[in-house]
Design brief:
This protein is α/β, with parallel strands linked by helices. The protein has two domains: 150 residues, Aspartate Aminotransferase, domain 1 (Alpha-Beta Complex), CATH 3.90.1150; 265 residues, Aspartate Aminotransferase, domain 2 (3-Layer(aba) Sandwich), CATH 3.40.640.10. Helices cover 35% and strands 17% of the residues. It has 13 helices and 16 strands. It has a seven-stranded mixed beta sheet with strand order 4-12-11-10-7-5-6, sandwiched between helices. A four-stranded mixed beta sheet has the order 1-2-3-15. Strands 13-14-16 form a three-stranded antiparallel beta sheet. The longest helix has 18 residues. It is globular. The two termini are 24 Å apart.
C-alpha cells in the first residue's frame, strides 16, 4: 500500500462509503491502478493474485481482449438508449443465449441493473402473478435461514432475519416465513427429516404464499453453506404439490461456479422464475436478468395487464454486448475442466486447515473453497496479512474463502491456497 496518502485517497477516506463500512471508523483501502488476467496492480506497484473474482463475478479475469473488443465495437455504435419502445440486437442476442443455457422451462427474460434488483423483479413477478390469477391472499414468501438475496427492501425481507446483515431494518421489512437452515451437507447421506421444517411451513402457509425463494445448493453471503441436491429436489416437488411458484436465485452460483452451468442442475430441477447476475458480464459491468416460464408470464399479463417495472438502464446495450462476449468466452472454453482442476486443488490444498484448533469446518464445491473459523476474523488485520503475501482475499465474519477466476493457473492458485492455510493456522 502507498505509504504517503495521496489527496484523492484522503478524500475517499473522509467522504466515500465503501460496502459494509463505517465512515466514522473506516477500514483501510488498497488503491488499485489496473488489473489484467488474475493480477491486480496497486498504485505502489505491488501485484496481488485475485482470489475473489471481484465478488465472484470476474470469471475470465481482467482486461480480456475479446471483451475489450466488444466494448470498443459497441461504444462506437451506441452505449445506451432507453428500452421503452426501443429494441436492439445486443439485448435480443443475449436473451436468446440465456434461454439456450438456462433450464428448458424458462421462456422469457427481464433485464435489470443488478442482482438485488433482479430479485426484486422476481418477487414482484410472483406477487403480480398471484394477483392476476386469483390467488389474492398470496402475499408472503417462504425461504430458508442462512440465505442472502441482496440489500434492497424486498430482497432483504428474505435474507436471514437473525444472522444476516439487515436486522436493524426488521421492523420495516415485510414479514415472511423461514424454514430451518438446510442441515444436510452436499456430500452427506440424505435423511428424510432434513426437509421436515420446510415441509411443515409450506403445508401450513401455502395459501398465503406468492412463492418460495432460495439460493440453489450454495447459500452465498449468508454463510457459504453447501446443501444436498435432494433438499432442492424435494422443494420443487412440494412447490408443485401445493401449487406455489419456485424462485431460484442463481446470481452467485450461475455460469459455472459450482461445476454446473447453473447450480439447480445438481438437483436436475427447473424453477418457475430464475435470477442471474454477477458473472453474466464476466464482472465487467453491472447487468442482471430475471427469467420466467411462459406460464408465469401469461399469468402476469392476463387480461392485458402490464408488468410494472422498468429500470432506466434496463437492457443497456453496452452491458448486453459485454455479456454476449462473456458468454461466448465461457461456452467456448474448457470451463468444466477448469472448475474440476480448481476444485481438486482446493480440496487437497485446504484440507490441512482441519488440523487447526481455530477451524470449525473446511468445505469445497466447484471453484469455491471455504475455511470456516470458530470466531470472527479481525477484518483489518487479516486483510493486511493477505496483502503482505501478495494475494487478494476478502474474508467476512468467520469465513475465509476463495472464489478465483476460472482462468487462474496452478501456480497462482497454490499461492492463494498457501496464504489461506498459513493465515488460518495463525489467526486468533
Amino acid at each position: 500500500m502507498i505509504t504517503t496518502e495521496q489527496p484523492w485517497q484522503k478524500f475517499d477516506r473522509e467522504h466515500i462509503w465503501h460496502p459494509y463500512t463505517s465512515l466514522s471508523h473506516p477500514l483501510p483501502t488498497y488503491p488499485i491502478e489496473s488489473a489484467s488476467g488474475t493480477r491486480l496492480k496497486l498504485c505502489d506497484g505491488a501485484e496481488l493474485i485475485d482470489g475473489m473474482s471481484s465478488w465472484w463475478a470476474a470469471i475470465h479475469g481482467y482486461n480480456h481482449p475479446v471483451i475489450n473488443k466488444a466494448i470498443e465495437e459497441q461504444t462506437a455504435k451506441m452505449t445506451h438508449f432507453m428500452f421503452g419502445g426501443i429494441s436492439h440486437q445486443p439485448a435480443t442476442t443475449l436473451a436468446q443465449k440465456l434461454l439456450e443455457l438456462a433450464p428448458k422451462s424458462l421462456d422469457n427474460v427481464f433485464f435489470s441493473d443488478s442482482g438485488s434488483v433482479a430479485v426484486e423483479v422476481a418477487m414482484k413477478m410472483a406477487l403480480q402473478y398471484c394477483h392476476t390469477t386469483g390467488k389474492q391472499q398470496g402475499s408472503k414468501f417462504l425461504t430458508v435461514r442462512g440465505g442472502y438475496h441482496g440489500d434492497t427492501f424486498l430482497a432483504m425481507s428474505v435474507c436471514d432475519p437473525v444472522a444476516g446483515m439487515h436486522s436493524i431494518f426488521k421492523d420495516t421489512l415485510a414479514q415472511n416465513y423461514f424454514a430451518d437452515k438446510p442441515a444436510c451437507s452436499f456430500t452427506a447421506n440424505w435423511k428424510p427429516h432434513y426437509i421436515d421444517s420446510f415441509k411443515q411451513l409450506i403445508n401450513i402457509h401455502h395459501n398465503e404464499l406468492a412463492a418460495v425463494i432460495l439460493e440453489p445448493i450454495v447459500q452465498g453471503a449468508g454463510g457459504l453453506n453447501f446443501y444436498h441436491p435432494e433438499y432442492l429436489r424435494q422443494i420443487r416437488e412440494l412447490c408443485d404439490q401445493y401449487d406455489v411458484l419456485l424462485i431460484l436465485d442463481e446470481i452467485a452460483t450461475g455460469f459455472g461456479r459450482t461445476g454446473k452451468m447453473f447450480a439447480c442442475e445438481h438437483a436436475d430441477i427447473s424453477p418457475d422464475i430464475m435470477c442471474v447476475g454477477k458473472a453474466l458480464t464476466g464482472g465487467n459491468i453491472s447487468l442482471a436478468a430475471t427469467m420466467s416460464t411462459k406460464c408465469v408470464a401469461d399469468g402476469i399479463c392476463a387480461n392485458e395487464n402490464l408488468f410494472m417495472h422498468g429500470p432506466t438502464f434496463m437492457a443497456n446495450p453496452l452491458a448486453c454486448a459485454i455479456a454476449n462476449a462473456s458468454l461466448e468466452i465461457l461456452c467456448n472454453s474448457p470451463w468444466q475442466e477448469n472448475i474440476a482442476r480448481i476444485e481438486h486443488a482446493l480440496q487437497a490444498g485446504l484440507e490441512p486447515c482441519r488440523n487447526s484448533p481455530l477451524v470449525a469446518d473446511v468445505r469445497v464445491l466447484g471453484a469455491i473453497g471455504v475455511v470456516e473459523l470458530k470466531q470472527d476474523v479481525d477484518q483489518e488485520a487479516i486483510q493486511a496479512e493477505f496483502v503482505k503475501r501478495g494475494v487478494w482475499v476478502r474474508p467476512f465474519g468467520k469465513l475465509v474463502y476463495l472464489m478465483p477466476p476460472f482462468i487462474i493457473d496452478d501456480n497462482d492458485l497454490q499461492q492463494l491456497i498457501s496464504a489461506v492455510v498459513e493465515i488460518c493456522s495463525e489467526c486468533s
